Amino acid sequence: MRRLKPRSRSEYSMRCHLTRVLVLLLVTRILGAQTPEPAVSAAENDAERIAREIEKQVAKLRGLEFLHPTQIGVHDREELRRFLVDEMSRELPKEALLDQQRAMILLGLLPEGTQLESLILDLLSEQVAGFYDPKKKALFLIELAEGDAAGEKLQRITMSHELVHALQDQHFDLEKLLAIEDDDDRVTAVKSVIEGDATLAMLLFEAKGLPVERGLTLLPTTLDGLKPMLAMAGGGGELGLPGGDALMSTPRVIADGLIFEYMAGAKFCIAN
Q1: Does the residue 184 lie in any domain?
Q2: Does 196 map to a domain?
Q3: pLDDT of 78-104, one tens digit each?
Q4: Exposed (0-12), middle (13-18) or buried (19+): which is 105, by Cβ within 10 Å?
Q5: How many whole angstroms separate alpha carbon 72 and alpha carbon 188?
Q6: Which residues have C-beta within 8 Å of that of residue 218, sequence separation ≥ 6?
C-alpha cells in the first residue's frame, strides 16, 4: 500500500505550521531558553514590509539572492479552507482518497470511522499560519486579529520558512522538482530536502547565534520520539504553543509523515 500523499504540488509548503513550532520548541529546550523578543505592534504588522526585511536575512542565511521580491497575499481561514478543498479535489480524486482511507483502516493505521479528508482539511486549515504557492509564485499569510502579538511573532517565523521556499522556487523551480508520478518514496525524499532546507534556515533565523547544529542532531523524526521530549518541555498546549495537542492526537500514520519531512530533512541538509 502506498503512503498517504495528497498529490498537490503546493501542499508540501502548507504542511502544518504546528510542526515548525514544535521544532522550535525542541531546539530551544535542547540548547537553552532564549530571551523573548519584544512583541511586534499591530501598527508595525505590515506583511509586505516585514517580508522584505526577512527576505534579506533569509538570502544571507541561504547564500542565495532573491531574483525578485516575493508576492505577498493575506487570507482569512475560510478562504484558506476553500483553497485546500479545491487543491485536494483537483490533485487527489475523492475515490482515490477513499481507497486510501479504507486501506489504512483495514491495516489498523486509522481508527474505524475516520474521515480522512476531514481530518486532513481540519488539521491544515486550523493550524497553518502561511504557505508559499509555487503555482502562483506568492506567499499567502493568514489574517491576524488586531493586537495578536503571539500571532505576529509566529507569522515572522512562518515567513522565514516560507520565504525559503520562494527562494528555492526562483532558483530551482519547485513544481519541476515535484513533478514525480507514482513514486511516493522519491516524493518524500524530494520534499524532505525542500522542507529540511527551509526548516534549517528558519531555525538559524530564530536561533540568533545559538548552536543549532548540535540541537538538530538530537531532534526526533517520529511521533513516538517527539512525545517524551514534549512531555519534558511541558507539553504543547501547556506552553501555549498552538497545535501541540492537535499533533499529539493526530493518527501516527499522518503525524510521522509531517514530522519526518521537517526534522529528518533538516538533519540531512545539515549533514550535507
Answers
A1: yes
A2: yes
A3: 887 788 788 777 777 888 889 999 999
A4: middle
A5: 27
A6: 26, 30
Question: Is there a domain that residue 126 lies in?
Answer: yes
User: Domain range holding 190?
Assistant: 11-271
Q: What average pLDDT does range 133-145 have in this prediction?
A: 88
- Please list, in sequence order, all residues whose beta carbon lies within 8 angstroms of the beta carbon of residue 102, skipping any fewer than 6 positions away: none
Q: How many domains does the chain have?
A: 1
User: What residues have CB less than 8 Å from 129, skipping those under 6 apart?
Assistant: 17, 141, 142, 151, 154, 155, 158
Residue 157's closest CA among 196, 203, 213?
203
d(CA 103, CA 1): 8
Q: Is the dihedral of CA 23, 188, 192, 264 positive or negative?
A: positive
Q: Which of 62, 85, 247 is nearest to 160 (CA)?
A: 62
Q: What is the per-residue pLDDT across 14-69, written as a single tens digit (0 to 9) for each?
A: 444 445 555 554 554 444 444 444 444 333 347 889 999 999 999 999 999 999 99
